[in-house]
Amino acid sequence: MTGNWIEVKDLQQKNITLCPLYLCEEFKSKEEIMNIEVLKSKLHRATVTQTILDYEGSISIDTELVKAANMHIWEKVEIFNINNGARLATYIIPGKKGEFCLNGAAARLAQPGDKIIVVTYTQIDESQADSWKPKIVLLNEDNSVKEVKN
User: Fold this and answer.
1) What's 104's DSSP letter?
2) Considering the chain, what percentage of its residues have pLDDT values greater than 90?
3) 17, 95, 113, 114 - which has most CB atoms within 10 Å?
4) Is 58 designated active site?
């Protein structure tokens, strides 16, 4: 099976065709495959180092921490501010060592010294959900890595 298509084998005609999942009667009779969204990565208790209101947007994150958390530059992230409860979505841009800088409109939702959680999500087959393990990076006060889980 590839994407939203499933291979249908006709043994009498000895050929294989691709059938869209939503049309394929053979597939409908089997257990349906369902994807669910799960936590992929988390940078836990990062300290905001700077906020820059006059900027296009995003969050600047130390590139080594981005790698440690299995995140990527330009990847969508959700940010949870532990200090004030604010929640927002933006994307990652490269930052300097130890940096967590909220840019643009996001700068109104935090101030230097605030503790934040940065998360990404992925989709997996529901059958993998019970064995799924996200990458969790716990941070020290200075945004150095305290512990990596999974």
Assistant:
1) G
2) 75
3) 95
4) yes
Q: Among residues 22, 29, 41, 91, which one is catalytic? A: 91
* Beta-strand relationship, 35-47 and 135-139: parallel
| Residue limits of CATH 2.40.40.20 in the chain | 35-149
What is the distance of C-alpha 14 from the center of its chain? 43
Cα separation, 84 vs 114, whole angstroms: 8
Cα-based distances in Å from 131 to 124, 127, 135: 11, 9, 13
Cα–Cα distance, 110 to 140 (Å, whole number): 19
pLDDT at 3: 58
121 is catalytic: no
Q: Which CATH class is domain 35-149?
A: mainly beta
Catalytically annotated residue among 22, 29, 55, 58: 58
